[in-house]
Design a protein that fits this description.
By secondary structure, the protein is α+β, with helices and mostly antiparallel strands. It has one domain. Helices cover about 15% and strands about 30% of the residues. The protein contains four helices and 18 strands. It has helices spanning about 1-15, 15-20, 95-105, 175-180; strands spanning about 35-40, 45, 50-55, 60-65, 75, 85-90, 110, 120-135, 140-145, 150, 155, 160-165, 170, 175, 180-185, 195, 205, 220-225. The strands form three sheets. The chain has an eight-stranded mixed β-barrel. Strands 11-10-17 form a three-stranded antiparallel beta sheet, with no helix packed on it. A hairpin with a 2-residue loop joins strand 2 (about 45) and strand 3 (about 50-55). The longest helix has 12 residues, at about 1-15.
Length: about 230
Amino acid sequence: MKAVVALCLLLFCAPPLHAQKAKKPIPPKRKEKPPVAEKITENVYRVGSVVIDMAAKTVTCPGEINMDRGTIEYLAVAPGGKTHESLLTLRVRPLHLQVALILLGLEPKNVLKEQGERKKPEGSPVEIRVRWQDKNGDTQEFPADYFIAKQPDEKPAESHNWVFTGSRILKEGFEADIAKSLVAIWHDPAAILDNPTEEGADNIFIVNASRAPKRGTRIEFIVKALPQKRTDKP
Protein backbone atom coordinates (compact mmCIF):
# COMPACT_ATOMS: atom_id res chain seq x y z
CA MET A 1 0.00 0.00 0.00
CA LYS A 2 2.79 2.47 0.84
CA ALA A 3 4.42 1.74 -2.51
CA VAL A 4 1.16 2.44 -4.34
CA VAL A 5 0.69 5.75 -2.53
CA ALA A 6 4.27 6.75 -3.34
CA LEU A 7 3.70 5.92 -7.01
CA CYS A 8 0.53 8.03 -7.06
CA LEU A 9 2.41 10.99 -5.62
CA LEU A 10 5.19 10.63 -8.18
CA LEU A 11 2.62 10.64 -10.99
CA PHE A 12 0.88 13.73 -9.63
CA CYS A 13 4.00 15.70 -8.81
CA ALA A 14 5.97 14.96 -11.97
CA PRO A 15 6.26 18.09 -14.13
CA PRO A 16 4.18 18.14 -17.34
CA LEU A 17 5.86 17.22 -20.60
CA HIS A 18 6.18 20.81 -21.81
CA ALA A 19 7.91 21.70 -18.57
CA GLN A 20 10.34 18.79 -18.93
CA LYS A 21 11.34 19.98 -22.43
CA ALA A 22 11.79 23.62 -21.47
CA LYS A 23 15.04 25.12 -22.72
CA LYS A 24 15.68 27.17 -19.61
CA PRO A 25 16.90 25.20 -16.61
CA ILE A 26 14.29 24.75 -13.88
CA PRO A 27 15.54 25.12 -10.30
CA PRO A 28 15.19 21.83 -8.41
CA LYS A 29 12.23 21.69 -6.05
CA ARG A 30 12.42 20.32 -2.57
CA LYS A 31 11.56 16.65 -2.75
CA GLU A 32 8.17 15.96 -1.22
CA LYS A 33 7.72 12.87 0.89
CA PRO A 34 4.92 10.55 -0.27
CA PRO A 35 1.82 10.41 1.92
CA VAL A 36 1.91 7.44 4.26
CA ALA A 37 -0.98 4.96 4.14
CA GLU A 38 -1.58 3.86 7.70
CA LYS A 39 -3.25 0.46 8.03
CA ILE A 40 -6.15 0.56 10.51
CA THR A 41 -7.69 -2.89 9.98
CA GLU A 42 -7.44 -5.58 7.32
CA ASN A 43 -9.37 -3.51 4.77
CA VAL A 44 -9.20 0.00 6.17
CA TYR A 45 -6.38 2.51 5.60
CA ARG A 46 -5.84 6.19 6.32
CA VAL A 47 -4.00 8.77 4.22
CA GLY A 48 -3.83 12.04 6.13
CA SER A 49 -7.39 12.63 7.33
CA VAL A 50 -8.91 10.44 4.61
CA VAL A 51 -10.12 6.94 5.57
CA ILE A 52 -10.26 4.31 2.82
CA ASP A 53 -12.43 1.20 3.24
CA MET A 54 -11.36 -1.20 0.52
CA ALA A 55 -14.16 -3.68 1.30
CA ALA A 56 -16.98 -1.12 1.36
CA LYS A 57 -15.39 0.79 -1.57
CA THR A 58 -15.71 4.09 0.30
CA VAL A 59 -13.56 7.09 1.10
CA THR A 60 -14.54 9.16 4.15
CA CYS A 61 -13.18 12.46 5.44
CA PRO A 62 -14.23 15.05 8.04
CA GLY A 63 -15.71 18.45 7.35
CA GLU A 64 -18.46 20.87 8.18
CA ILE A 65 -21.41 22.71 6.68
CA ASN A 66 -19.87 25.90 5.32
CA MET A 67 -23.04 27.54 3.92
CA ASP A 68 -26.69 26.93 4.84
CA ARG A 69 -28.06 29.37 2.23
CA GLY A 70 -26.87 31.31 -0.82
CA THR A 71 -25.36 30.73 -4.27
CA ILE A 72 -22.85 27.89 -4.63
CA GLU A 73 -20.47 26.70 -7.34
CA TYR A 74 -18.91 23.89 -5.27
CA LEU A 75 -20.20 21.07 -3.18
CA ALA A 76 -16.91 21.04 -1.25
CA VAL A 77 -13.60 22.85 -0.99
CA ALA A 78 -10.61 22.50 1.32
CA PRO A 79 -9.74 25.22 3.87
CA GLY A 80 -8.38 28.25 2.01
CA GLY A 81 -10.51 27.51 -1.07
CA LYS A 82 -13.55 29.34 -2.43
CA THR A 83 -15.49 29.09 0.80
CA HIS A 84 -17.79 31.97 -0.22
CA GLU A 85 -19.45 29.65 -2.76
CA SER A 86 -19.18 26.13 -1.31
CA LEU A 87 -21.73 24.10 0.65
CA LEU A 88 -19.04 22.16 2.55
CA THR A 89 -15.52 22.65 3.82
CA LEU A 90 -13.54 19.41 4.19
CA ARG A 91 -10.53 19.14 6.48
CA VAL A 92 -8.42 17.30 3.97
CA ARG A 93 -5.47 17.89 1.70
CA PRO A 94 -6.77 17.59 -1.89
CA LEU A 95 -3.90 15.35 -3.02
CA HIS A 96 -4.74 12.86 -0.25
CA LEU A 97 -8.35 12.67 -1.46
CA GLN A 98 -7.30 12.02 -5.04
CA VAL A 99 -4.80 9.34 -3.97
CA ALA A 100 -7.49 7.67 -1.85
CA LEU A 101 -9.93 7.52 -4.77
CA ILE A 102 -7.29 6.00 -7.04
CA LEU A 103 -6.50 3.39 -4.39
CA LEU A 104 -10.16 2.31 -4.64
CA GLY A 105 -9.52 1.53 -8.30
CA LEU A 106 -11.26 4.60 -9.69
CA GLU A 107 -9.94 6.17 -12.88
CA PRO A 108 -9.81 9.95 -13.44
CA LYS A 109 -10.34 11.38 -16.92
CA ASN A 110 -10.25 15.15 -16.86
CA VAL A 111 -11.39 16.47 -20.25
CA LEU A 112 -12.33 19.97 -19.11
CA LYS A 113 -10.27 23.04 -20.01
CA GLU A 114 -12.05 25.88 -18.21
CA GLN A 115 -14.66 26.60 -15.57
CA GLY A 116 -18.27 26.41 -16.75
CA GLU A 117 -17.32 24.58 -19.95
CA ARG A 118 -20.22 22.84 -21.72
CA LYS A 119 -18.24 19.66 -22.31
CA LYS A 120 -19.48 16.80 -20.12
CA PRO A 121 -16.94 15.83 -17.44
CA GLU A 122 -15.74 12.23 -17.55
CA GLY A 123 -14.37 9.75 -15.03
CA SER A 124 -15.39 6.86 -12.79
CA PRO A 125 -18.91 7.23 -11.33
CA VAL A 126 -19.34 7.70 -7.58
CA GLU A 127 -22.05 8.39 -5.05
CA ILE A 128 -21.48 11.18 -2.51
CA ARG A 129 -23.29 11.23 0.83
CA VAL A 130 -23.22 13.53 3.85
CA ARG A 131 -23.62 12.18 7.40
CA TRP A 132 -24.07 14.15 10.62
CA GLN A 133 -25.73 14.05 14.01
CA ASP A 134 -28.80 16.20 14.58
CA LYS A 135 -29.57 18.19 17.74
CA ASN A 136 -31.09 15.07 19.31
CA GLY A 137 -27.93 13.06 18.72
CA ASP A 138 -29.52 10.95 15.98
CA THR A 139 -27.45 10.13 12.89
CA GLN A 140 -28.72 11.61 9.63
CA GLU A 141 -27.39 10.72 6.18
CA PHE A 142 -28.47 11.94 2.73
CA PRO A 143 -27.08 12.06 -0.83
CA ALA A 144 -25.18 15.30 -1.44
CA ASP A 145 -27.62 16.53 -4.10
CA TYR A 146 -30.37 16.54 -1.43
CA PHE A 147 -28.92 19.86 -0.18
CA ILE A 148 -28.82 21.57 -3.59
CA ALA A 149 -31.52 23.64 -5.32
CA LYS A 150 -31.66 25.57 -8.58
CA GLN A 151 -32.45 29.15 -9.50
CA PRO A 152 -34.69 30.94 -10.31
CA ASP A 153 -37.53 28.93 -8.70
CA GLU A 154 -35.45 27.24 -5.96
CA LYS A 155 -36.56 23.83 -7.20
CA PRO A 156 -34.59 20.93 -5.61
CA ALA A 157 -31.86 19.52 -7.85
CA GLU A 158 -32.51 16.15 -9.46
CA SER A 159 -30.85 13.15 -7.86
CA HIS A 160 -27.62 12.20 -9.64
CA ASN A 161 -24.26 10.58 -9.19
CA TRP A 162 -20.91 12.35 -9.55
CA VAL A 163 -17.73 11.58 -11.51
CA PHE A 164 -14.10 11.33 -10.46
CA THR A 165 -12.49 13.61 -13.03
CA GLY A 166 -9.24 14.05 -11.13
CA SER A 167 -7.54 17.42 -10.91
CA ARG A 168 -4.92 18.59 -13.40
CA ILE A 169 -1.14 18.59 -13.11
CA LEU A 170 0.24 22.05 -13.86
CA LYS A 171 3.84 23.17 -13.98
CA GLU A 172 3.13 24.90 -10.66
CA GLY A 173 1.96 21.62 -9.11
CA PHE A 174 -1.22 19.67 -8.41
CA GLU A 175 -4.01 22.12 -9.24
CA ALA A 176 -6.46 21.01 -6.54
CA ASP A 177 -3.77 21.62 -3.91
CA ILE A 178 -3.32 25.12 -5.31
CA ALA A 179 -7.00 26.04 -5.77
CA LYS A 180 -8.29 23.94 -2.81
CA SER A 181 -11.19 22.84 -5.05
CA LEU A 182 -12.59 19.38 -4.27
CA VAL A 183 -16.09 18.85 -5.72
CA ALA A 184 -17.54 21.14 -8.40
CA ILE A 185 -21.25 21.64 -9.00
CA TRP A 186 -20.50 24.14 -11.78
CA HIS A 187 -17.86 22.45 -13.96
CA ASP A 188 -14.26 23.14 -12.91
CA PRO A 189 -11.14 21.31 -14.21
CA ALA A 190 -9.31 22.17 -10.97
CA ALA A 191 -11.72 20.05 -8.92
CA ILE A 192 -11.27 16.33 -8.15
CA LEU A 193 -14.94 15.40 -8.55
CA ASP A 194 -17.58 17.03 -10.75
CA ASN A 195 -21.27 17.17 -11.56
CA PRO A 196 -21.88 15.20 -14.80
CA THR A 197 -25.37 16.58 -15.53
CA GLU A 198 -26.03 19.02 -18.38
CA GLU A 199 -26.90 21.69 -15.82
CA GLY A 200 -23.33 21.48 -14.50
CA ALA A 201 -22.42 23.95 -17.23
CA ASP A 202 -24.92 26.49 -15.87
CA ASN A 203 -24.15 28.59 -12.82
CA ILE A 204 -27.65 28.23 -11.32
CA PHE A 205 -27.14 26.39 -8.03
CA ILE A 206 -28.03 27.45 -4.51
CA VAL A 207 -28.13 25.79 -1.11
CA ASN A 208 -31.47 24.17 -0.36
CA ALA A 209 -31.97 26.15 2.83
CA SER A 210 -34.93 24.04 3.94
CA ARG A 211 -32.78 20.90 4.00
CA ALA A 212 -29.22 21.92 4.84
CA PRO A 213 -28.01 21.57 8.45
CA LYS A 214 -26.89 24.72 10.20
CA ARG A 215 -23.60 26.32 9.20
CA GLY A 216 -20.79 24.92 11.33
CA THR A 217 -22.39 21.47 11.75
CA ARG A 218 -19.68 18.78 11.74
CA ILE A 219 -20.19 16.20 9.01
CA GLU A 220 -18.65 13.11 7.45
CA PHE A 221 -18.19 13.28 3.69
CA ILE A 222 -18.49 9.85 2.07
CA VAL A 223 -17.60 8.91 -1.50
CA LYS A 224 -18.65 5.43 -2.63
CA ALA A 225 -17.33 3.82 -5.81
CA LEU A 226 -20.04 2.65 -8.22
CA PRO A 227 -19.81 -0.10 -10.85
CA GLN A 228 -18.30 1.20 -14.05
CA LYS A 229 -19.88 0.58 -17.44
CA ARG A 230 -17.89 -1.79 -19.60
CA THR A 231 -16.73 -0.26 -22.85
CA ASP A 232 -14.99 -3.33 -24.28
CA LYS A 233 -16.84 -5.39 -26.86
CA PRO A 234 -17.30 -9.16 -26.38
